[in-house]
Amino acid sequence: MRAIAVSEYGATPALIDVPRPEPGPGEILVKMIAAGMNPMDWKVADGLLKDTVEAPFPLILGQDGAGVVDAVGEGVTRLRHGEQVYGSFFGLARGLGSYAEYTLAAADGPVARMPDGMIYTQAAAVPTASLTALAMVDEARIDGGQTVLVVGATGGVGQSAVQLASRAGAKVIATARADMAGTMRRLGADETVDHSKGDLNGQVLAAHSDGIDAILDMVSDTGGTEQLAQLLRPGGAYVSTIWAVNPDAMAAREVRGTNIESAPTAELLDRLSALIDASELRVTVEREIPLEEAPAALAAARAGGARGKTVIRL
Ligand SMILES: NC(=O)c1ccc[n+]([C@@H]2O[C@H](COP(=O)([O-])OP(=O)(O)OC[C@H]3O[C@@H](n4cnc5c(N)ncnc54)[C@H](OP(=O)(O)O)[C@@H]3O)[C@@H](O)[C@H]2O)c1
Q1: Could you tell me if the CB of 177 is within 6 A of ligand 1?
Q2: HEC profile of 65-80
Q3: 152, 175 in Cβ contact below 8 A?
Q4: Is pLDDT of 117 > 90?
Q5: Within 13 Å and on the Cβ side, how many CA atoms surround 78?
Q6: Three-state DSSP class for 20?
Q7: Which of 62, 66, 81, 274 lies in the 20 to 30 Å Cα band around 102?
Q8: Across the beta sheet with 232-240, what order do the strands follow?
Q9: Same domain membership, residue 106 and residue 177
Q10: Residue 271 covered by a domain
Q11: For the domain that residue 185 is a member of, what is the CATH number?
Q12: Domain of 166?
C-alpha cells in the first residue's frame, strides 16, 4: 500500500510502498478514504515525541482520518465490516498513521461512526481540531454571559472553538486578518480583532475596558500569554494548546491557567457527531490534495504558509 512516511526523525516525508497491516485481536483494519492534516503531523516527523514513544521506521505520518472498516480482528463487536468511520489513527508505537491507504485502530479506541450525511473529506478534518476545541471550552467552563477571546481563531482548532464558545452562549472575540473577519462572524464571533495589526490588548480593551472572562489560545508563547492575561478579570480562565501557560503566573492573577492535551475517545467523537448532525458545528476544508502532494503540504504548513484545513484524498 502507498503511504507517507519518514525514514528517521527530521527526514523529509516521502511517498513509500509498504505491506498492508493485518488486524490483530481487538483491532480493525480501515481502508482510509481521506486523512486530515494537523500541525502535530510535521511536529511528529521532526521528532516532537522522540523521547516519549519509541517508534519503528519507516514511520507513517498522520492522526486524523475517515474511511471504511475493511476487516475486523478477533473479538471485535463494536464496529463491523463496511461501516464508515472517522477518528484519530495515531499509531506511532507501531509506525502506523492515517496518511496511508490502510491503517489499524483499536476497536475500543478513538474511532466512531461517521456523522450522518457527512462526506469522508469533511469527517477527516474534524477529530483533532474539534476535540481539542471541545476540551478547551469545557476546561474554561465557558457559558452564557462570558466574554471570550479566541487567539488563532482562523485555524483548525480555532474555528471549532469559536463555534462551540458561541453555542455555549458566550460573546466571542476572534482574532482574524481582515479577509477572514466575515468567516469568523459567520461561525458565531461577535467581534474580531486583527492580529496582523499588533497590540491585541489595546484592540480588545477598546471595546471591553473592564476586561474579559476567558482566553482560548492556540498561538501565543509564554510571554504572550502573560501579556494577554492582563485582559482577564479575577476568576477568569486561560487555556493554551501549545503548553505556553504558566499556571503559577496565572494563579498570581487569580486566573485558572491550563495547558490542554487533546485526548480523543470514541465517546467524545460521538459528542462531536451529535453537534455536527444538529448543524451546531461545521468544519471547512480549505484544500484537498492527492497523497503524493502531502510532503509539499507538510513543508508549507511547517513554514506557516498553509491557511485552513488541508485534507489528503487516498
Ligand atoms: N495540545 C494539543 O493537544 C493540541 C491539539 C491540537 C493542536 N495543537 C496545537 O495548537 C496549534 C494550533 O493548531 P491548529 O490545528 O488550529 O493550527 P492551524 O490550523 O495551523 O491554525 C493556526 C492559526 O493561527 C493563526 N495565527 C498565527 N499567528 C497568529 C497570531 N499571532 N495571532 C492570532 N492568530 C494567529 C493563523 O492565522 P493566520 O495565518 O491568518 O495568521 C492560523 O489560522 C498548533 O501549534 C498545534 O500543534 C495542540
Answers
A1: yes
A2: EEEEEEEECCCCCCCC
A3: yes
A4: no
A5: 16
A6: coil
A7: 274
A8: 191-193, 171-175, 147-151, 212-217, 232-240, 256-259
A9: no
A10: no
A11: 3.90.180.10
A12: 129-259
Q: What is the pTM of this model?
A: 0.96
pLDDT at 23 over 90: yes
Q: Per the domain annotation, does 274 fall within a domain?
A: no
pLDDT of residue 307: 78
Cα 177 to averaged position of ligand 1 atoms, centre (Å)? 14
- Cell for 263? 485526548
- The sign of the CA dihedral 217, 309, 15, 261 is positive
Question: Which are the contacts of 261, defined by CB distance < 8 A and separation ≥ 6?
Answer: none
Per-residue pLDDT tens over the stretch 84-99: 999 999 999 999 999 9
CA-nearest residue for atom 42, ligand 1, is 155
Report the separation in Å between the CA atom of 124 and the middle of ligand 1, taken as the mean of its atom positions.
18
Mean of the per-residue pLDDT values of the chain: 96
Look at phi and psi of residue 249 and say left if phi exceeds 0, alpha if psi is from -120 to 50, else beta.
alpha
CB 26 within 8 A of CB 144: no
pLDDT in tens, 252-279: 999 999 999 989 999 999 999 999 999 9
Give the distance between the most distant pair of CA atoms in the chain: 61
Q: What is the DSSP letter of 168?
A: T
